[in-house]
Design a protein that fits this description.
The chain is an alpha+beta fold and 188 residues long. 31% of the residues lie in helices and 21% in strands. The strands form three sheets. Strands 2-3-4 form a three-stranded antiparallel β-sheet. Strands 1-5 form a two-stranded antiparallel sheet. It has a two-stranded antiparallel ribbon with strand order 6-7.
């Protein structure tokens, strides 16, 4: 029950929020751009993740600020924005624009998502919102399940492109793009 909403998206960290493809772009062009970006982008390592509760949901987050991770996320948002169709009025309304701070609303209008650049918080969602009564039990289960992961550095070593085949459907992996230059293949 507590992981149902998070499971729809798969275990991941969002760098570029879901978007519809711009009418002048193609899936093939997006995938090629992801390949090019990934090949020239180094792996970013998170020294340590911790469990945190953000707006009622549990997530894994970096233990402290990581400027390299934020620059990486900024580059992803900026470099792939040309592939994003402008938001419809309904998409803007779904984000509850009246509840957003001015910079978040500006980000929503310009970049398609309120929490980018200075408002970005890297997180890997683990649950839906949990009440104050449920939180201690969930926290204990999460701490136990992720105990080993929380003790070692975590590399951010790939970008993955997901697709939602229809509104509300689970996200499916379309392509996976390893970061960093790959060694040239030897041939005989």
């Amino acid at each position: 029950f507590h992981t149902a909403s998070a499971r729809r998206y798969g275990f991941h960290a969002t760098l570029k929020a879901p978007f519809r493809l711009a009418s002048n772009e193609t899936e093939a062009a997006l995938r090629a751009a992801l390949d090019d970006f990934a090949e020239t982008t180094p792996v970013v390592t998170i020294p340590r993740l911790v469990v945190s509760q953000i707006d009622g949901f549990f997530a894994l987050v970096p233990e402290g600020p990581l400027p390299a991770l934020n620059r990486f996320a900024d580059d992803v948002v900026r470099d792939f924005d040309r592939f994003r169709a402008p938001l419809s009025e309904a998409e803007i309304e779904r984000r509850s624009p009246d509840s957003l701070k001015p910079d978040e609303f500006r980000n929503l209008c310009q970049w398609g998502y309120p929490y980018v650049f200075e408002t970005f918080r890297f997180h890997m969602t683990l649950s839906g919102r949990a009440s104050s009564q449920e939180s201690p039990r969930l926290r204990a289960a999460i701490d136990s399940l992720f105990a080993q992961v929380l003790q070692r550095p975590v590399p951010v070593d790939a970008l993955t492109l997901f697709v939602e085949t229809e509104p509300g459907a689970p996200f499916m992996v379309l392509s996976h793009h390893a970061l960093g230059r790959r060694p040239a293949r030897r041939t005989a």
